[in-house]
């Protein structure tokens, strides 16, 4: 694929995505459908891309971005359910598909059929997440879908490598497979965490958000390639690094967070648009390869449709059979009672099995030859893989919104709980502000006298607590009976922070000295509020999503302080 072709494909995909975002359509599904239509235009060339490009350059940043935005605490809480789908379901799906394909193609070695099973086993949560966010799926469902997609790629790619090695040697030992899997998990997680710790320490010492963001862009590639070089899972290395750095990001500078968020959103849009467009563009050429094979197109289509049916049905069957294990509480998960999926939520998860970039890349990377012989039924295996990818995206992706609405699965409880948590935290931040103000009492007493300092501090504290209480009541009206009676009366002469600081500096008009002191105090207050958010998040009293929304408010306030006229005066 030439550079101009890549540019045109990406530009067209971005244009389609822009229309979808404007109209509220699921972009991955529209991209695949539009690309299939365009691919049949006679003048359109074949879009061929080395599979290593997808695995080495597209997959790492997509996984890293998803892990960064995921909640480590939610991931740990749902670890038993995530492992059940991300490992158990992948292995069962791969085995079921392999048996179906082997039954229809008895001349094909079982290990070659297992290659197909490993290729089509891992679902991709991108399309499901897009639909879920638009329709408001409960957070525990979104956590399960995103967590599954973070680890199922590692399971499938490890199984894929083991099956390919078995095809080449003609034999495969279970012990060797388990050893390979254990090494992939151990080395992958260790490398990812090691790189993440180093990046975090560097990030804490950097005051340049541009350089810190550049290091962040390089991190997923460093984790992936390092782990793969050590026979570990590059996927798990990227996921481990992303979860760690996402969890510790509040400790980094506010500017780095404000810089990185739009950067990763843009990277996600470009790579996802390119990937789904490429999936649609590949179909006609895979069909032509099957026509040129010994089996012929009719047989290839029949096999592919049966494999598609098996891939779709095994997911709900597995989830139904293993539903009892959803109640398990792994040690250290801190999973609250009653957090298991309901029957309706399980049905939604069962239908959210759309495939994506890993299936595309793994199918394309199936070698032409193995041990000096043509790879058994390579064209038919690739057609089946693309059929599963495109078929699940269009069939399940287009009907998933109807399933969600029909079952009445929504996030009303999450919205209410989020409002209650935020209300409680806003009241708690008033206590933190009070502590910051108390630390100013001695300095202000020396300048103004004890009585005047006490008056100003009490005035500021009263204003701040009244605002926090008012915000809490508006967020959670149910707390009004408890909060309003305790809400302090704000004196008529009460002023905000700038007015109080003007009195501290004995200045009748605004001055640079007053501005600098006000800015320092405001930064101390923001830092104290940020500590409250992280403490509540770590103790489980504040959900990660709520914490990040409130953290962004504080980051923007920090940014406004850095962009103010006071900062410009200070730099002169």
TrEMBL record:
Keyword GTP-binding: no
Cross-referenced InterPro entries: Cation/H_exchanger_CPA1, Cation/H_exchanger_TM
Keyword Plastid: no
Cellular component, GO, one term: plasma membrane
Localization (cell): Cell membrane
Membrane topology category: Multi-pass membrane protein
This protein's name: Cation:proton antiporter
Stored Pfam families: Na_H_Exchanger
UniProt organism field: Cellulomonas xylanilytica
Major localisation: membrane
Keywords on record: Cell membrane, Ion transport, Membrane, Sodium, Sodium transport, Transmembrane, Transmembrane helix, Transport
GO MF annotations, alphabetized: potassium:proton antiporter activity; sodium:proton antiporter activity
UniProt GO BP: regulation of intracellular pH; sodium ion import across plasma membrane
Domain Cation/H+ exchanger transmembrane span(s) in chain numbering: 14-405
TM spans (from-to): 29-47, 84-104, 110-132, 181-202, 222-246, 267-287, 299-321
